[in-house]
Amino acid sequence: MERHMVQTLIEIDGRIADALRAAFRIGATRPAPAPGQHDEVANFAAVLLAPRDDGGCEPVDCDKPVPPGGLRMMFDSCYIPDHGEDAHFGNAYAGVVGVADGVGSYRGRGVDASAFARGLMSSAHAEVVTAAPGTQFCPRTLLERAHHATAAAGTPAASTAVIVSLAGRTLRWAYVGDSGFAVFRDGRMLRRSQAQQHHFNCPYQLNSKRDGIRVAMAAEVGEVPAKDGDIVVVGTDGLFDNVTDDELERIVRMGTALGFSPTNMAEVVAGFAFEASRCSYRDTPYSVLGRREPGKGFFTGGKRDDITVVVVYIVS
């Protein structure tokens, strides 16, 4: 993990990094404790990183009434660059966050692959900060306007993107491609985006081409009633290609039990995704999907990539 992340984990609880590795089988096998000694790391993992009793991680139904009253966002982010082609923004006062991931194939053509991602997030941020106070933002409209502004400027390359907003007591989203989000409530996954792909490792993407994808036609949109205590993890595919839903749910549950701040949670999630991306002998969502492709040989391991994680706490 990045040095400052390791320091963060040590400051919270020195057992966290080793417990994550032990629970999810990343890294070298730890030596057994001496006779008569307790394995604190194993006990820590067994208590705070245990899988759910029902053994599953399917999104749950949101059928309970949500109490009245105002809600707001608290958030922070963590970015671990590989090629430096992700971008993100957030405004807690307006209740909006977003991430974008520049399409790396443009790099091989001598084009700045980060340009469109940066343009999208800069344009979206500009829309938010120049809006009238109290404006409630529709993620699809915001993403559409950001796309229009970025394309009108003739910005090169292409990008995936996701925007999540809190409007009153409603959490709303819009995304194109494989940048996505997951919503957690009471330690369980409530909602999870599903990547839009033409085929393996080729996501839907926004660009400046006249015949390119348009937000109004392609964006996946939705909403769910929000509740005090909900946690939203927003990220690029550097997160979701390397971390399973079950792993993410267990990490969020651990962080909640330990009283993580959004900063702590974002760094722990991103740090784990980074280690998973470098681990060659275990399965990840990327390797599982890759093996389903015709002509693909057997392989395991993660995908080295930029990793952006934005963690939002919904609070009253």
Automatic annotation (TrEMBL):
It catalyses: O-phospho-L-threonyl-[protein] + H2O = L-threonyl-[protein] + phosphate; O-phospho-L-seryl-[protein] + H2O = L-seryl-[protein] + phosphate. Gene3D superfamilies: PPM-type phosphatase domain. Residues 70-314 form the PPM-type phosphatase domain. Keywords: Hydrolase, Magnesium, Manganese, Metal-binding, Protein phosphatase. GO terms for molecular function: metal ion binding; protein serine/threonine phosphatase activity. Its EC number is 3.1.3.16. The keyword Hydrolase applies. Its cofactor is Mn(2+); Mg(2+). Belongs to the PP2C family. This is Protein phosphatase. It comes from Urochloa decumbens.
